[in-house]
Structures are given as structure tokens and as C-alpha cells.
Amino acid sequence: MLNRLEVAGARRRLARRGAGPGHRPDPTLGMGTDRLPQIEHVVIVMMENHSYDNYLGMLRRDGSDGLPLDEHGAPSSTNLADNGTAVRMRHFGGTRQKSGVPTQSWNASHIQFDDGSCGGFVRSIESTLPGMDASVAMTYWDQKDLPFYYGLAGTFPLATCWFSSCLGPTFPNRRFLISGTAHGLIDDLPFGMIDYPASGTIFDLLTAHGISWANYHHVSAVKTNWRLLSRAAGLNALRVLGTLVAAIFPQLVPALESKLQTTAGLYPLGILRSLNHLRPISQFWSAARAGTLPAVTIVDPDFGSCSEENPQDIQIGEGFAAKVINAVMTGRGWSKTLLIWLYDEHGGYFDHVEPPAAVEPDDVPGQTILERYALLRWLLSLTSYAKKIQAADDGPRTYDRLGFRVPAVIVSPYARAGYVTSTPYDHTSILKLIEEKWNLPPLTRRDAAATAPLDALDFDSPPHFLTPPPLPAPARQWFGQ
Known about the structure:
Elements: H1 2-16, E1 41-47, H2 52-56, E2 78-80, E3 86-88, E4 90-91, H3 106-113, H4 121-128, E5 139-140, H5 147-155, E6 158-159, H6 170-179, H7 202-208, E7 213-217, H8 221-230, H9 237-248, H10 253-256, H11 271-277, E8 278-280, H12 281-290, E9 296-299, H13 314-330, E10 337-343, H14 369-372, H15 374-380, H16 385-393, E11 408-411, E12 420-421, H17 428-438, H18 445-449
Parallel strand pairs: 1-9, 1-10, 4-5, 6-12, 7-8, 7-9
Antiparallel strand pairs: 2-3, 10-11
């Protein structure tokens, strides 16, 4: 009964969208038709806040396009500080990150871009977080710190040009992953996010065509039940209430600026979709082992402890990701699985490759909550918090450029051995993959123009990695749920 109600709701939402930005891949076949039967399970493991150079810049593999090295084998990249001092890349001492730095706010990311020179990473901290250690932006880790990740990137197809979807922080980039647009969002403020994209999300398309999906998470049952209530279509005012509390009592804002809970929840899900598709991480392990994962799976880390966002210890996140990837590779469904390991955005850490121009996803400009809500703008104008928002969200209001490169590896039995792809991808390439497989139309102009990472797979030969290859153990095991 619940499933039927959910399907009916998804079809109504899609019916209201009107003509989309493109047609399904094969107009001769119906939507929902499986065009890649070799793959039954698509698994997305999206971690947080690291650039390609920050993690894989020291990977020495043909075509890996990592950090430029000097004659001594040390990274030679530099950025200038405000006083003209050249700050050189250095190895980060230890694996626990600094608290609060670097920064990937909308404003900071555009400063870092620096008209394509990637020369503003140090200055972005000096400008937006004065007094903090700006040199942290110019740090990296290597194989000794992240042995599992280096083994993974040295074994399976490595994508050297996987860019985040916009020059901004986590929430807008994860919205691109599930809807092909940030729908005007440019920051990570959770209150006030009651909007929904005109073309819907990938979950609407999957549900409407009977394609199973789930988002596995680490949220406690109490918090999940509250969020089920707050996501109900008729109760979105609860999110606005948080915005008003922030305006009247700005000292409570740090408590309201909660961490991301689930990727799927970046738009209001409603009770039915939350009940049917949000699942605790404990269920992932059993489903992976049994080969019963849904057609599309998002595995979220615990955003408070093992997502790899600062100030977390990066080796704890590596341990979690290793457990997820190993569970998939040793599970009964491995022979028909495609897993993509990647990061939502760069976290403010340096990368030397210029993010390319991109297709604007829709006609929705970037806006702060102050620009969205006149009453909130008036209330917050009396507080210091408005200045904090303005400082973080200053800059252009367009989505016409991709964000910085992030680590990404394509993991599958059908993966090409020894393959490195320099094809430009962004997070909407995952949407494109799903649309190509199930003959679904694009959601926005961005995923219509995207390229699916299918060049990393070989369906014409026996699967090379049918027997999972041995990979190095992570530096630290993860012993969560």
C-alpha cells in the first residue's frame, strides 16, 4: 500500500514538470527499460571534503596527473599569501585535520579559483577566516597515510578529471548528485531548505518506474523519526521555524547548523519516501553480503565521525570506506555491481587543475537565505550573523563552472584493468549513468550534457575483476555499526 502511494506521488510530481531538457537515451524503448543488464546494482560511496591533489596527488601511475614535482620528488606547487609570501605544498603532519580550516564556502571557493589560476587557496582563508592557519590549504597526504585508497586507485579505473559540480560546499554539490541542480542553494545552512526542483530528483524517476533505491545512513532512530515528521509535505514549516529561531536567537545558530544527515534528505522527502528508502547502515552490511542491495544505493558515512570532513581523522573515514567497498566486493552481488567512490567537494584543499566551464543546470540563480526570505533578512540585519552569511556566500550567483577535482575510482568486475580516464566528469555523470542504464530522460541541462563513466568498463570481454583483487588494508579499521 505504501509503495503504491509513493509511486503515485512520484508520477504526479513528474507529470507537473512538463517538457524536460532532453529525451531518453533510446526513444524506441520505454522509460525504465534496462539497457545495461550486466550491471544490476549501482552503489555510490560519496565521502567529504578533499581534493584530488590533497589525497591522490602523490600517486605515481601513468596518466595520474597528480601534483607537479621538483627534481627532489617533492611537490612544487605554491600559492601566494596576501603579503606576497609563496606558500609551498607540504605533507600534513599526522592524520587528524585542523578544526575549521581550510574552507570551501561559496566565497572561498571562488577566491581559490582565481580566474582559473587556482592561486587563491591561501588568500581564501586569509580573507574569509582571518587569524586561521592559511597554509593548511596547501597540504597533502600520501600512500603511507592512506594505503587502502592508494591501492584502490592503483588497481581499478582512476578518474583524473572528476570535478565537483559547482564552486561551493557540500549541500549544493550533493544536490547536484541527486537532482542535476543545486536549485539556488549556495551554502550548507539546513534551515529554510523547503524548496523542490521543478524537474524532481532522480528518486522521483526511479520510483515512478519501479526501480529500487535506498540511502543507508547513521542517523539514530530518534533523529530519524523527527526528520520523518519535518519532511512531511504539509509540515515543511518546521524547517522555516528553525530559520526564525536563528533570526531571533542568533546565539543558537551553532546548534541549528547541524551536520548533513542523509544525502537523499537535501530536498524534503516526505514520510512515504523516508519510510521506504532511508535505511540504517546496519542493514547495508547484510544486504551487501546477501547480494540484495537495491538497484541504486547511496551509502552515507557518519557525517560527524567518519566522513573525512575537518577536524576528523582521515584514517577513520578510510576505514569506513574500505569496509563498504570490501563488503560489496565479497558479497553475492559483486558479479553484477558497479561502485563509484568519490568526494562531494574539495574541502578547501589545493588542486592544480582549473575547473572547466559548465552548462547552467536551469534558470534558478544562487541565493542566500537572506535573499530568499525578506523577513529573515530584516530580522538578521540586527545581528552579527547576517555578516557571517554574507562573508561566506559572497561572489557570483551562477553555476556556470564546475568545482575543483575530487578523488574518484570506478569499481566493478567489468572495470578495465590498468585504466586511467581523463574524461571530464562531475557528479551529474552518475545521473547520466543511471539514465543511460534505465533509459530515463535528463532532469536538467547539466545532466543532459554530462558524460557517463562507461569508458572505464568493458562489457565485451569476460569481467577482469570477477575475482576481487587483493587490496591493502586501511591504516585503521572502522568498528562502527
